[in-house]
Amino acid sequence: MLKISQNVSIPDDEIELSAIRAQGAGGQNVNKVSSAVHLRFDINASSLPDFYKHRLLSLRDRRISKEGVIIIKAQRFRTQEKNREDALERLRELIKGVAIVQKARRPTRATRGSQKRRLDSKVQRGKTKALRGRVSEE
Q: How far is Cα 35 from Cα 23, in angstroms, rounded to an integer?
């Protein structure tokens, strides 16, 4: 059972974990040991609430396929057990991140005083630059 929040959890039978051989350096050992973990989680077939499903499917994340399957490959650690925990933790964080609703941004306006100060400083800079012209000799 993967606990997402107090109310939401995912049963183990909905998460498919498979051991695969890790990529990268590791010498001869990398060819023998399947220490990396491939996690697959089908969003549509899961028991998640519809709110979570809809938000997950609307995410623009490369880990979510067009069919609505989350695919996470964990190969950060040397042991399969740590990679398994890492994959589950990353799935938990992905689903938790979807639950957070961003507060709507309210655009603010500049005060009348700040607008006046800005325009006055522009006029002042213009006068300073106008004085930098060539000096006419008479």
A: 10
